[in-house]
Design a protein that fits this description.
This protein is of the alpha+beta class. It has three domains: about 260 residues, BirA Bifunctional Protein, domain 2 (2-Layer Sandwich); about 100 residues, Rossmann fold; about 80 residues, C-terminal domain of ProRS (Translation Initiation Factor IF3), CATH 3.30.110. Helix content is about 35%, strand content about 25%. It is built from 15 helices and 23 strands. The strands form five sheets. An eleven-stranded mixed β-sheet has the order 3-7-8-14-11-10-9-22-23-21-20, with helices on both faces. A five-stranded mixed β-sheet has the order 16-15-17-18-19, with helices on both faces. Helix 14 links the parallel strand 20 and strand 21. The longest helix has 22 residues. The radius of gyration is 25 Å and the shape is globular. The structure holds one RNA strand of 77 nucleotides.
Amino acid sequence: MADEKKLTPRGEDFAAWYNEVVLRAELADYSPVRGSMVIRPWGYGIWENMQRALDDMFKATGHENAYFPLLIPMSFIEREQEHVEGFAPELAVVTRAGGKELEEPLVIRPTSETIIYSMYAKWVQSWRDLPVLLNQWANVMRWEMRTRLFLRTSEFLWQEGHTAHATGEEAERETLLILGIYRRFMEEWMAMPPITGLKSNSEKFAGAVRSYACEALMQDNKALQAGTSHFLGQNFSRQFDLKFQSEAGQEEYAWNTSWGVSTRLVGGLVMTHGDDAGIVVPPRLAPLQVVIVPILKGDDTAAAVKAKAAEVADRLRELGLRARVDDRDNVSPGSKYYEWERKGVPMRVEIGPRDLAEGKLALARRLVPEGAKRKEFVAEGEAVAGMPERLEAFQAELLQAALRRRDEHSYRGVKSVDEVKEILDGPGGFVFTGWNGDPAVEQTMKDACKATSRVVASEEFRSETPPERCVSGDGPSQMEVVWARAY
RNA sequence: CGGGGCGUGGCUCAGUCCGGUAGAGCGCUGCGUUCGGGACGCAGAGGUCCCCGGUUCGAAUCCGGGCGCCCCGACCA
């Protein structure tokens, strides 16, 4: 960095920008163990707000929280063939404890299907015990070769929902219900509009029958898998003997789903809204929505300014907002502006002697609309009373901007691998094409374009005119698939 | 695992080629003056120069070995 105070601009080096902004906005820091990270209060505060919103949505749809243990017997993981093959390279295993070699190695959970369905097998006897709708907030570990803060770390935080149902249809409905919840959360809370769809066989969860995903487009026009919801069929039920007696008296295997989002979402948030000044946190997720900076002159106005700042903060809190006065006296106001902008606080209020005299407050939004002034001077009463609406308007604008960017970088009616390559080597984005369903086409795309199939688009994301031919030129299209370079 | 780079104060780094009192900027502490977009003055704290061994009167610097981290590639539910 030529200037230590400035971040590397996004356009110059997006990856460098991302790392700097995560560190300098104090979202996270590297830990002594390679590939793991410390989530600092500002980053954790964002995660807590995400958790609260998602948890409310899960509860509203009948789910309950529980907690299953960190350590899983190795033999459990090995029970489901595809599952073990998918996870084997990433497992961290405890072989020694209490000063002795363990008789059976214990896996630090990379995900909890095996332990959870083994327990469900104990708890479920009858169709009357179904459905089981549980979620857990937990940490998981997947040993990664190359890591990036929030986006890919060996240990991360997430929620994993695991349900058991009497019928496949019901389980499939659950899978899609959760996919919808994820999508709604990403739009309404994160202002990060994903496209949704079905994962190809090569991209699906190891052990699932079908995986659905939310894929969001980052500002560098790479895709981020932001949430997944899996229809597991009876794969795990069969391996863990999760059976129930049906209404008709038949013994049947239960049908399962599992679904999760992780702290990766924080990384997605950064790459969706951040700019060269720092991150931008949508108001609904911001740990601090309004920061108040008093401008203190070395005269007799100082006390009055401080009192007004405290009063405004109180009144904003009475409106249910998260507001705070930054009353540090060893940092100049300008320095505070930069700091809170870097951290993405949606709204800043400045109060100085001049404002006090005029009965006004200076409002500075984290991002200002095209052509608008950086600061707005508003009568105090109106500024306070109108703050919730201003924040909601900001939230809505962030979503609109992200939607616009996503749609501007969605390329439809693309007919050849060469064309896909041209787009991805150029502007980048989501490329919609026809596909015959052959995995060989995915390999071709990977070799030629460094792109993977992100999803087979859900109905509402499909093009008005369905593609006729597969992008490979080989046969008619069976489905419309979205390609992108991905995180 | 292959290729490249780097380990010096909290951070970013200079010094290493050519051995001779360990430095700068930022940050930090105290006091004072400041405060409407990254303040200033004065005083101060802070270092096993990644580790082990060797050469030398003397090693951050030279030699040997080891460890760690970062980047690129491969891999990636």
